[in-house]
Write a structure and sequence with these properties.
about 325 residues; 2 domains; eight-stranded parallel sheet; 18 strands
């Protein structure tokens, strides 16, 4: 009899345990269904916000388009799963071919409309740039940004931006509106490409930027603008000017530090116009110098501790080439 009671107790315990497990499974499934329902509702809200924002981008009024830009950027902050899609739409808007600026004798309304649309495009770039900064509340680091063929009527400002991954394309873009800033930017893993870009009325400023990984390509430029690498650190990655023509601008390397990575100024085209100079006399360090152009042009001024370039970054072998000058060159 005692054994029978023990068996009954054990059986009841097992049944109770199974019941508890079943209850837990049922509760878990209910929770999952609830969460799935909430996710579906959240996704539906995101899609509605996306549709409303993109509809505004096609409105005739610049003010409505401006609201659409802000709405789409805010949605990208909230919708991490489809952030890249929102970024793609913002970049696509920037890439829309710009209408030519109306002549002064045109109707004032046409001039006002052109300025309004130009401001909408500039706002889209500012919204992106603000989220690329290191201190952005919702950073967009590591995503792809396609500005291929875009026209920048006002110089974009990417001061403090972090390019840590993905691809940022300014290929074939036209910079037609003043100075472009990448001050204190961090190039730490992305591919940032200016291949074939045109700088009509723009210079590039990279003061205090750091190049530690990734690639930055200034290749196949027909007329390289003046580029300021003041206080810049080249410690890794690759920066290339291959197949570009230095017929308009030049490069300033004041207080730059060449401690690693690769900076390629060969093969680049330097026409014999008697005015082009690559001045390295004020660099802060010259441990891994850039790969310099061959031939007689341009005039190259070296820092006091390095009168001749190395064959390639990191190679201690030195060589002499025509047109090279030491620090006493005037």
């Amino acid at each position: 009899m005692a054994n029978l009671l023990e068996v009954i107790k054990i059986s009841l315990s097992i049944v109770a345990g199974i019941g508890g497990v079943v209850a837990l499974v049922v509760a878990y499934r209910k929770q999952r269904l609830t969460e799935d329902g909430e996710k579906r509702e959240q996704a539906k809200l995101y899609i509605e916000r996306f549709d409303k924002a993109t509809d505004k981008l096609g409105h005739d009024s610049p003010a409505v388009r401006l609201a659409g830009i802000h709405a789409l950027a805010a949605l990208a902050d909230d919708w991490e799963g489809e952030r890249q899609m929102c970024i793609d739409v913002l970049c696509a808007y920037v890439r829309i071919p710009a209408e030519p600026e109306p002549e002064d004798e045109d109707e004032p309304a046409a001039v006002a409309a052109w300025k309004g649309i130009t401001e909408v495009r500039a706002t889209a770039v500012r919204e992106i740039a603000s989220r690329l900064r290191a201190d952005a509340s919702v950073p967009w680091h590591g995503y792809n940004f396609d500005f291929t063929g875009a026209t920048f009527n006002s110089g974009p400002d990417f001061t403090g931006a972090v390019f840590s991954g993905g691809r940022v394309s300014f290929d074939d873009a036209e910079f037609d509106g003043g100075e472009t800033f990448f001050r204190e930017a961090q190039f730490s893993g992305a591919l940032v490409s200016f291949v074939g870009a045109r700088f009509t009325r723009a210079d590039l400023f990279f003061e205090s930027a750091t190049f530690s990984a990734g690639e930055v390509l200034f290749t196949h430029l027909e007329r390289v603008p003046h580029i300021f690498f003041t206080d810049v650190t080249f410690s890794g990655g690759r920066v290339s000017f291959a197949a570009s023509e230095f017929s308009r601008g030049g490069i300033t390397f004041n207080r730059a530090r060449f401690s690693g990575g690769e900076v390629h100024l060969r093969p680049a085209y330097f026409p014999d116009n008697g005015h082009l100079t690559l001045d390295f006399s004020r660099v802060a360090s010259w441990d891994v110098p850039p790969l310099l152009p061959e031939g007689s042009y341009p005039t190259i001024i070296f820092p006091p501790e390095a009168q001749t370039p190395r064959e390639k970054p990191g190679d201690p072998a030195a060589r002499t080439q025509p047109g090279l000058q030491g620090e006493d060159h005037v």
